[in-house]
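Supplementary notes for students who missed Thursday's class. We covered one full example, reproduced here. Read the sequence, then the structure, then the short commentary at the end.
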Amino acid sequence: MRIAIIGGGIGGLTAAMALRQFGFEPRVFEQAPELLEVGAAILMWPNAMRVLDRLGVAAAVREHGGMLEKGVSLNPRGKRLYEIRLPITDLPAIALHRADLQQILLHALPRESISLGHVFAGWEQQGETVVARFTDGSAIETDVLIAADGLHSRARAQLLNDGAPAARGYIAWRGVAPHTPKSLQPLTAFEVVGRGQRFGIGPLGFDKVGWWASVNHRAGHKHRETDGAALASEDPAATREQLLRLFADWCEPIAELIDATSLSSMVRNPIFDRAPVRKWGEGSVTLLGDAIHPITPNLGQGGCLAIEDAAVLARCLDKYVNDGKPGQGLGVPAALKRFAELRSARPAAMARISRTYGVVGSAACRDGAYFANLRRRRSMGKPLGRTFAKHRADHCPQRGGPAPAQMDVQLRCLCRRDLKPFVWSAPIRRCFVS
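Structure (token representation):
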């Protein structure tokens, strides 16, 4: 059976590996002329590591990454707000450079199964066959089309025509520092939370440190919309100066990490996601990963969810389509429909939790650190719900002006049901380790 995968990112490559385990021979079509080492850190929680272990690459991921055992939240002065020790599971949480993960997945696939320089234009269902067309005028026929073409998916635009993704009111910068500052504890991720700003730090292995910074959109600070890809700043030196200025009075080693990061490796993204949808595909076409369920980066689960998608999709095609298997004869559309049924609820729940975490963490008000301090307390249900009812965004002016309109709307929409998952209890634990 012919299977074409659009997109050579984490989700697309993992889908190719998972399908090959069941005897399929998928082809991956990537728009980039070559797969360069771009991006910054990515976190592989145990839920994703378990899939990678079954695919035979978990050991390589551990070799290239840094293990995490706990997370610590600080205020800008360095005072500890809370600490979370990650539950012990069969596989650890690993942070590594996105390019390292991509290379691990690439090396596990036959070179001839990946075609570069193919910019996807659209598809057409012709009976049981799908014709995928590319912008250079070429086309291929396939029995299954898997679109893993990211946040601004062309396949999604054709399937759903639901417009641009929703901006969430803040921008993120990411980078990798080549050495670990002495002040950092091993096996620990840090998040420093201030007024409408956050800074995260985590070990990547080989003495490297990944970091990210987020800042709310302020009045007069506009960002230019792009095609959604992670873009290096047009003026990297100005970006560094801006970050140093924004985090000038924050605790160490924030300034040290920004200074140590290569200008060419700093990446800037406005933060987007989308509302969940029930329609994941049509006929012999399905979406996967960020193409169907983009998620804000607050939980570090975007890549993990795409990896889960890949595993479930491969199993569905094996069960309902592969020769000699139970359920044979139901066909590709039935397999893809079952895939969507099995997967839709979990990414939707994760996206809601991640979005809420971002709103709380980016609260642009005097009580921003207070919210961050409260969000992990066991008494987070009704007390924190009342806190938000009392301290609505319109009563929490940002330094130098009113809170951004989007933050205002998002804070107003928060309810106790959204806030409860921040307790490190069974529901939220299952999100990361199940």
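Commentary. The longest strand covers residues 166-177. Residues 363-433 form one domain. If anything here is unclear, bring it to office hours.
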